[in-house]
């Protein structure tokens, strides 16, 4: 019953009214035209009985015994009107409670001046550039006066007589104690508007740092030097209080390059080039020649190319990073991208090149290759089969780059986890045989006491791996020794496994 009575009261309201604690004049949230907003320190709970069809929200407010809770009321009229409404507060479980009945009476009048907006924000969007938004960037000293960001406010005279006004920035606004903000400029700061006329006020924002700037722009109605009792301005507007307050917000950012800060080049066999193409995004630059620098301690030769050139004035620019190695290696290096001011933006590049069958699974899915072994003790060699079945050892970079583009950048995990493709590859070429097969990986390997793993390691290294001798008494010391020996065996330079992550 209480909620139904409150619903009827709210339906009679035709104005924007919100309630809140008296010590905090800002409304936390407003739902449709009327709501009771929750505040810090006040236990307000949204009612479970709220109807999904109701345009309003109801809250359950708990007041401690022998205490009082003060509210402030903010009224935002939608037009020139008078309204009288009942304060929307009822006791839980009761339809009406006479001591709580309070009427709110509000009158709205025609303003002397009207504004197109009461808040200006310079943060992300001032105008459109390319397909994205123009970034509000920190201005250099030589562009503070010549190229500030601007926005306009329209001021209209709603009265039948000329109105003088002036604009002043709020001197009580919080500023940086070390360096006062001088980023706001107003023009014109005073003017006279004839009846029905509109004057545009230009707000200029020239940031020299990347902190948040906030201020209030006060609009004062200027009285005549000689008071005229017939002029309502002399009666309506006291000189010491602003007629309007316009909120100014602005925050800039330093120009920067935006991109994925770490890339992984696809793993490839030896003598094969691995290539990765990515985009670099322009966040605030007008146009400059993009430069780069590769870390000097990089173990391989990194090649950086710009397919569309290094002049950077569009929204994005492609960059191609590649490498080729003649020895088994895994590396991490840094490529610094340098802007017009000499600022470096590091890009971490990871790569792997080896003849490991396990490491190059993604490569096998995109290319047709074969494994050759000159003699029993030598390291197996991997060679790619060309389209005409003739191996060309000296392929130019163009053909290699074209083949690398066919290589999938990311192979789905479910494919890499499927060991059947690797077993089929080894058995079909006569390299290894698995009589019992491996259906469930890795449980079948565990049940076979790791025998397939030892076969695989023996094939890769050409050496006999421990484990054929059966211990009659297993101890913890023997197990640790076995693990140590296995690590030494599979990390030798002649093996095709280039890294050991966990064992």
Automatic annotation (TrEMBL):
GO terms for cellular component: cilium. The keyword Ligase does not apply. Keywords: Cell projection, Cilium, Flagellum. Gene3D superfamilies: Immunoglobulins. GO terms for biological process: cilium assembly. InterPro entries: Ig-like_fold (IPR013783). It comes from the Eukaryota. PANTHER family: CILIA- AND FLAGELLA-ASSOCIATED PROTEIN 47 (PTHR45912:SF3). This is Flagellar associated protein.
């Amino acid at each position: 019953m209480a909620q139904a009575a409150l619903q009827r009261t709210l339906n009679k309201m035709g104005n924007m009214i919100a309630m809140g604690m008296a010590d905090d004049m800002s409304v936390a949230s407003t739902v449709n035209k009327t709501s009771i907003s929750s505040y810090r320190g006040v236990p307000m709970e949204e009612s479970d009985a709220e109807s999904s069809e109701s345009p309003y929200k109801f809250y359950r407010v708990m007041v401690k015994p022998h205490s009082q809770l003060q509210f402030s009321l903010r009224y935002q009229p939608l037009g020139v009107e008078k309204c009288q409404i009942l304060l929307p507060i009822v006791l839980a479980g009761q339809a009406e409670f006479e001591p709580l009945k309070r009427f709110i009476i509000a009158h709205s009048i025609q303003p002397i001046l009207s504004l197109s907006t009461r808040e200006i924000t310079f943060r992300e969007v001032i105008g459109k550039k390319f397909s994205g938004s123009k970034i509000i960037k920190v201005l250099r000293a030589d562009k503070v006066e010549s190229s500030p960001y601007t926005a306009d406010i329209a001021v209209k005279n709603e009265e039948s007589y000329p109105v003088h006004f002036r604009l002043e920035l709020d001197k009580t606004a919080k500023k940086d104690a070390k360096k006062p903000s001088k980023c706001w400029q107003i023009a014109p700061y005073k003017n006279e508007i004839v009846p029905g006329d509109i004057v545009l006020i230009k707000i200029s924002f020239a940031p020299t740092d990347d902190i948040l700037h906030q201020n209030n722009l006060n609009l004062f109605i200027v009285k005549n030097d000689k008071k005229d009792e017939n002029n309502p301005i002399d009666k309506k507007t006291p000189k010491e209080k602003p007629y309007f307050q316009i909120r100014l917000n602005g925050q800039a950012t330093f120009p920067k390059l935006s991109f994925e800060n770490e890339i992984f080049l696809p793993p490839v066999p030896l003598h094969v080039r691995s290539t990765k193409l990515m985009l670099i995004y322009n966040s605030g630059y007008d146009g400059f020649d993009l430069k780069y620098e590769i870390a000097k301690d990089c173990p391989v030769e990194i090649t950086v190319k710009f397919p569309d050139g290094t002049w950077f004035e569009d929204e994005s620019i492609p960059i191609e990073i590649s490498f080729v190695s003649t020895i088994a290696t895994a590396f991490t290096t840094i490529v610094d991208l340098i802007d017009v001011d000499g600022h470096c933006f590091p890009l971490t590049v990871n790569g792997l090149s080896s003849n490991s069958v396990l490491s190059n699974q993604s490569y096998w899915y995109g290319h047709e290759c074969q494994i050759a072994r000159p003699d029993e003790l030598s390291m197996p060699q991997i060679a790619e089969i060309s389209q005409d079945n003739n191996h060309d050892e000296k392929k130019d970079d163009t053909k290699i780059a074209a083949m690398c583009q066919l290589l999938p950048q990311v192979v789905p995990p479910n494919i890499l986890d499927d060991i059947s493709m690797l077993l089929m590859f080894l058995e079909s070429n006569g390299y290894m045989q698995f009589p019992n097969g491996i259906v469930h990986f890795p449980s079948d390997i565990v049940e076979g006491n790791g025998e397939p793993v030892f076969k695989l390691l023996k094939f890769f290294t050409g050496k006999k791996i421990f484990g054929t001798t059966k211990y009659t008494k297993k101890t913890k010391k023997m197990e640790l020794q076995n693990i140590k020996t296995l690590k030494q065996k599979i990390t030798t330079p002649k093996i095709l496994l280039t890294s050991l992550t966990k064992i």
